Amino acid sequence: MNASVPSASRRISGILQSVAGLLPTALVLGALGAVGWWGHSNNWKLPKASELRGEVADKDDWCEEHNISESICLECHPEMEPKKTESKGWCNSHGIPDCTLCNPERAELATPPSVSPDDRARAKSALDFTPRPTNLKACTLHRRRIQLADDEAAAKAGIQTDLVGTASERDPVFEFVAAAGELGYNQTKVAHLSSRSPGAVAMVFRHLGDKVKRGDVLAIVEAAEVGKAKSELLLAFGLVQLKIQIVDGIKNSGGAVPELRLREAEASVKETELRIDGARQALVNLGLALDEQELRGITPEQLKAKLHFLAIPAEIAAGFDSKKTSTGLLPLLAPMDGTVVSRDVVVGEVVDLNKSLFELIDTRSLWLTLDIRGEDVAKLNLGQSVRFKPDSNGVELAGVIAWISTQADLKTRAVKVRANVSDAGGVLKSNTFGSGRVILREEPNAVVVPNAAVQFEGCCHIVFVSAKADPFKLFHVRKVRIGAKDDRRTEIIAGLLPGERVVTAGSGMLLSELLRSGLGEGCACHGAKKE
Q: For the chain, what are the domain ranges?
């Protein structure tokens, strides 16, 4: 009897523990049931903030479809702000409905603007240049308008607007082929200078980094071959003077000398003149220019003095003693303006024709070599503009294409393209890498908007244009045809006119509202064919 009492207690304790274990589950199920009952009773809508604060909202004055008070909903009451009743239809020229280029009265401007032939020509040129993104002709979302309650609602939604630039405020746009590039010296402006005759270096006047002008003396070499050529010229010049005197004496002899002797004397003069010309040409070949006219009306003594320091400026010749100085002085002259970038010569050094003494470069002229992808080469032509920014300083350079290689690189398959660029300031460095652009199209007066202003709603590119009557509350959906685009701006080929106000920030929120309301209206663009 007494043993049965603990057994009953244990059963009661077990039952209580089971009930306690089921209690949390029962509470959760009860809470879910209460939420379900409340949601069903309130049509699954959360209360507005005003209701939570105890304020009474007029449930009858709310347009669920357009998410705004029905009393000010322009879609429900179009008589307050009538839509443009007569559609102009699809513009085949520009690929948008109600084209403002063809129908400027459709623009949201206080007074209809005038579209110039240049504006239409600009749009045609942009569309003809390359295939552009297209819009769906069947899409009807451009007929919609998005409305906000007031300025405060626009500010909370982050809506910002800006005017499309007028003709004087338009920006240039570029379409280009981008490529990596490298700057190098213009190889037609590089000179490797060596002595034209073996000899010993007598003087050196220019050093590494010096800037020189064409004709400046860089160094002087004493060369035996030069002295020999000068001596040959002096000898031939003296002989011709003597033989001319003989011819003159024969002619003045009154016929005492036979005619044959006169002819022989004249032939000898011609022969000696040829020797003079040969000696003069030898000096020219050595870089010592001597005009034939300079030999006329001159005495042998004058010629000797002239040849001693031939092609050497007077200020340099003044530093030599003519009585102790060799006549075989050969000046090394700069063939062009430039900078000495290499010097490998010292006074007293014996040099020959194979040794390069100076390297002279005109650093103002550079070659830009770009590596163009094979698929982009067909777009290039000689004379096209090129822009280049070196990695070192970011200063943009301009040039034109001067050469397009006829072959692709065996490893990279890129094609070399060369452009000539100038560096008058001398700030650029050879062998510098950077980024280049070959300009395919440049439009100086393009209509552009910030990238954030353009939205793609699934089938068309659109912008939101502020209504001219109320620039902050009502926004029209406008189809546009876009062109060039960079990291900040998008070109609008057609669909916007200067002076209209577009949404530049917060357009994503307006797009969401457009698509939400468009589902209810059943946009006809799904499954449509692109025009």
A: 1-45, 81-170+447-521, 175-186+362-442, 193-358
